[in-house]
Amino acid sequence: MMHFLKEVIIMGVQLDLEELDEVLVAASAIISVFGFDEWEYSHIDEVLLYPTTFNHSFQFDDQSEDKQVLGMVGNGFMNGKMILSRNALRNGFQNHTDKNNTAIHEFVHLLDKEDGEIDGIPQVLINHQYTIPWLDLMHIKMEEINNDKSDMRNYGGTSKTEFFAVASEYFFERPDQLKRKHPKLFVMMEKSFKQSPKYKAVRKRK
Ligand SMILES: [Zn+2]
After folding, report:
1. Distance (Å, rounded) from C-alpha 134 to C-alpha 59?
2. Could you report the per-residue pLDDT of 118-137, keeping only the tens digit for each?
C-alpha cells in the first residue's frame, strides 16, 4: 500500500481528502494483486475522488442528470486516471455482505487492461491454456444471470468485462458464498488471483 501511494496521486475533487480515503484506495488496489510478487500497475497515475456518483461526462453537480456512475477507469484523454465516488469507496468496505465493492471492481478492470484490452480475459491472470474454459464458464454464468437464475449482480450479465469485475467483487467479499454457490468459478478465480481469501475473518466482522 505504501508503494502504491508513492506511485499514484490521490486527489479529492470538491472534498477534503481524509487519510481513510487514501488507505481504502490503496487497499482496493492491492487486494486483487496480493498474490503476485512485485506487482506494478501500468495504467494508473491518478485516482480522483468525487463526493458523490457522477455521469458519463464526469459531472456530479446538482444540475447534472444521469449521475449513476460509481467509478470508472479512464480512456482517451482520461487515460491513467480512475474516478471513484467517495461514498461508493467507503460503502464498499462498510458493507461486508453485499458482494459489492466499487473500488475493487475498478482496479480489476485495470488488471484486465494490462494486456492492452479490457475484455474480461486478463492475460496477466489467465494462462493461455485456460482461456477457452474461462470463456465457456463465463458464458454459462452470464446466461444464469440473464435468465434470473443467479445470485450474482445483474450488471455482471451485461458484458464479459463486467462479469469478470463483478465476479471478482464477489470473490473478495464473500468467498465462502462464492465457493458454495459457484464452485467452478471459485476455483478459477483462486487460480487466477493466486490467492484464497480467508472467509472466516469476513464472517466475524458481521
Ligand atoms: Zn465495470
Report:
1. 36
2. 899 998 888 888 899 999 99
The rounded Å distance from CA 32 to ligand 1 centre is 15
For residue 158, report the distance from its CA to the centre of ligand 1, in Å.
10
The pairs formed by 15-20 with CB atoms below 8 angstroms and a separation of 24 or more are 15/49, 15/50, 15/51, 15/86, 17/49, 20/90
Q: How many domains are there within the chain?
A: 1
Domain range for 126 is 2-205
- The C-alpha R_g of the chain, in whole angstroms, comes to 17
For residue 28, count other CB atoms closer than 10 A to its CB. Answer: 27
pLDDT tens for 128-183 read 888 999 999 999 999 999 999 999 999 999 999 999 999 999 999 999 999 999 99
Q: Whole-model pTM?
A: 0.92
**Calpha distance 139→133 (Å, rounded):** 10
Find the 91 Cα to ligand 1 centroid distance in Å.
17
CATH number, position 73: 3.40.390.10
Grid cell in block for residue 188 = 478459477
pLDDT digits (tens, 9 = 90+) for 62-76: 888 888 889 999 888
- Per-residue pLDDT at 61: 84
How much distance in Å is there from the Cα of 106 to the middle of ligand 1? Answer: 6
CA of 200 to the centre of ligand 1 (A): 27
